[in-house]
Design a protein that fits this description.
single chain, mainly beta, Glucose Permease (Domain IIA), 8-stranded antiparallel β-sheet
């Protein structure tokens, strides 16, 4: 910690500890703690109509985002990341609506493409206040992008959910 950090406080977030995640076979866990939104009420039509795949969205209670499955990180942008799961499930987690326009301001990414993560590992942290001040919604979408390749997907979370709890179940 430098002099100015001591004087004014450090603005860089600290990497959160991993959370316990469901180990059920085929589970896709919630990447955040918060309130599950009804899919057709997601404030972005592409996600609301599930154009990219089966989607569950959560209004977060904090800015810590965790891996929903174990696998290889295929992309890691400040506002979104993709994981090719060890079990064949491909997941995209998108933080907020139109937050790409923030160009990474207020986001801290803890992984890079090629890393292997376990469900519950921290992937990114974002500043909810910065997102709100920029005029964007901070809802978190979890999308199974290869939905058509799977025998079945059940959305299992409703109401409040904790990071690491089962959000969807794949067959």
């Amino acid at each position: 910690m430098g002099f100015f950090d001591k004087l004014f406080g450090s603005k860089k977030p600290t990497k959160p500890e991993a959370v316990a995640a469901s180990t059920d076979k085929g589970a896709v866990c919630s990447p955040v703690t918060g309130r599950v939104e009804v899919t057709d009420q997601i404030p972005d039509p592409v996600f609301a109509c599930e154009a990219m795949g089966k989607t569950v969205a959560v209004w977060p209670s904090d800015g810590n985002v965790f891996a929903p499955i174990s696998g290889a990180v295929v992309s890691a942008m400040p506002h979104a990341f993709g994981i090719a799961g060890d079990n064949g499930v491909e997941v995209l987690v998108h933080v907020g609506v139109d937050t790409v326009n923030m160009k990474g301001d207020g986001f801290e990414v803890w992984v890079k493409a090629g890393d292997h993560v376990n469900a519950g590992d921290p992937v990114l942290t974002f500043d909810r206040d910065k997102v709100a001040k920029a005029g964007y919604k901070d809802i978190i979408m979890t999308i199974i992008t290869n939905s058509d390749d799977l025998a079945g997907i059940e959305k299992v979370a409703e109401g409040q959910v904790t990071a690491g709890a089962k959000l969807m179940q794949t067959a």
